[in-house]
Write a sequence for this structure.
């Protein structure tokens, strides 16, 4: 019999392969960080393993993929900052009073801690790959190294980019581009790097055409995806119409910015005409349902996008890291806003959190499904309790409607354990929490004592 490193056996396997096969009682064999076999029946009849994983009522899925996050957003959870500012009444005030205040207070240590915390939360709830966007304009240089450090210690993998913006000055946009290019060159030259650089921007209402064009040129040069918030709030639409006489998607089309490697984050305010433009250029979408709700910006036309055959992946925008909560919100919000309970099947939602998110990030040839030859990014769930049968007929419904992050028993990344028996095994969680509390308390003290003023004169038409 062949030898393998890990044999996951006697499990309900949700493959997410092109046929969307669900194997009611099967096995996954892992060797040298890759999946070497997937099949039904008893894998012990074919393989001898260094380690056997055979758990009663276990469900095996691909490692979930987050199409968009902000690790640093976690640093404001429960913050007393919200008690000392005037409550924002719209999205622009949200940016100015909350997020831009946080951005300008961050240190490299804060960035590192946020990546540690975010990676731990992802690992504990089943996400193995992500795309992160960092906005820390006062510590731009080398800042992405601190994201990489935190993620690498936990053992996850993903993409990271610096949020290129010119909201304070024109020159800071080029500083952000330089940081992205530096990190892309560094990480893509190192095959062992768990975090790869990509090119990212804040939004079209905070950057000039020159910066957009330069970013696209560099993404083309290095062959990476590139991402930007698009029409999250109406400020993006109003700015483009007032300054350029065009809606955001029209402006991006006219300067040659759109392509199949562009990941548009949100798309809440897009019109049907803009949807057709995005479709024509095969632009990918990162959908962040829970973030859109807490920011009160609206609900993007995801069912229309899916109807056009567009690729949409689920992200969290730095709000709630549990993929099951994000899947459930995605499943529900489009039904209520469209008053149509037929929208968003459980299968489609799971696709959006696995293989479709991997497609949106351009990594679907490596992860996003359980198939021979793919990297062994695998999530194992052992639910404590399901009140109806759990089998190949019902598993998608349970993934979306029943399960939560606490049901994750273990996570493999490239065939190595990151969590096991519901514990993170790569870092000392107690030490991380103690350290993080000290760092975050210092950040909160700085925010509360600072006076934040914003001048964005050049943004005016």
């Amino acid at each position: 019999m062949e030898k393998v490193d890990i044999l996951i056996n006697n499990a309900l396997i949700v493959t997410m392969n092109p046929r969307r096969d669900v194997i009611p009682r099967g096995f996954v064999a892992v060797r040298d960080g890759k999946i070497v076999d997937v099949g039904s029946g008893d894998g012990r009849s074919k393989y001898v393993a260094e380690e056997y994983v055979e758990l009663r009522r276990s469900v095996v899925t691909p490692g979930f993929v987050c199409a968009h996050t902000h690790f640093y957003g976690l640093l404001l959870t429960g913050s007393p900052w919200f008690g000392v500012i005037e409550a924002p009444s719209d999205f622009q005030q949200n940016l100015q009073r909350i997020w831009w205040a946080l951005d300008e207070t961050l240190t490299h240590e804060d960035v590192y801690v946020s990546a540690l915390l975010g990676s731990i939360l992802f690992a504990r709830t089943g996400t193995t790959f992500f795309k992160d966007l960092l906005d820390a304009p006062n510590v731009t240089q080398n800042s992405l190294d601190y994201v990489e450090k935190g993620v690498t210690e936990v053992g996850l993998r993903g993409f990271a980019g610096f949020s290129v913006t010119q909201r304070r000055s024109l020159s800071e946009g080029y500083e952000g581009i330089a940081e992205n290019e530096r990190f892309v060159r560094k990480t893509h030259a190192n095959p062992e790097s768990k975090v790869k650089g990509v090119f990212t921007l804040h939004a079209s209402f905070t950057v000039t055409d020159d910066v957009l064009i330069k970013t696209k040129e560099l993404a083309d040069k290095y062959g990476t995806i590139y991402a930007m918030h698009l029409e999250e709030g109406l400020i993006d639409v109003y700015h483009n119409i007032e300054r350029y006489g065009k809606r955001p998607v029209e402006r991006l089309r006219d300067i040659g910015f759109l392509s199949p490697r562009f990941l548009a984050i949100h798309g809440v305010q897009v019109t049907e005409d803009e949807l057709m433009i995005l479709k024509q250029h095969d632009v990918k979408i990162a959908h962040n349902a829970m973030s859109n709700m807490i920011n009160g910006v609206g609900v993007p036309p995801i069912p229309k996008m899916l109807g056009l055959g567009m690729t949409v992946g689920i992200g969290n925008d730095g709000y709630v890291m549990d993929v099951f909560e994000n899947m459930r919100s995605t499943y529900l919000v489009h039904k209520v806003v469209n008053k149509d309970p037929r929208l968003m099947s459980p299968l489609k939602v799971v696709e959006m959190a696995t293989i479709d998110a991997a497609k949106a990030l351009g990594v679907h040839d490596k992860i996003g499904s359980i198939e021979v030859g793919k990297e062994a990014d695998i999530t194992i769930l052992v639910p404590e309790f399901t009140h109806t049968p759990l089998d190949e007929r019902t598993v998608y419904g349970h993934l979306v409607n029943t399960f939560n992050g606490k049901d994750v028993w273990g996570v493999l990344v490239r065939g190595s354990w990151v969590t096991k028996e519901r514990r993170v095994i790569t870092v000392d969680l107690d030490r991380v929490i103690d350290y993080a509390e000290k760092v975050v308390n210092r950040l909160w003290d700085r925010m509360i004592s600072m006076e934040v003023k914003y001048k964005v004169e050049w943004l005016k038409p």
User: Anything to note?
Assistant: The radius of gyration is 22 Å. Residues 64-360 form a domain with the TIM Barrel fold (CATH 3.20.20.140). The chain is about 40% helix and 25% strand.
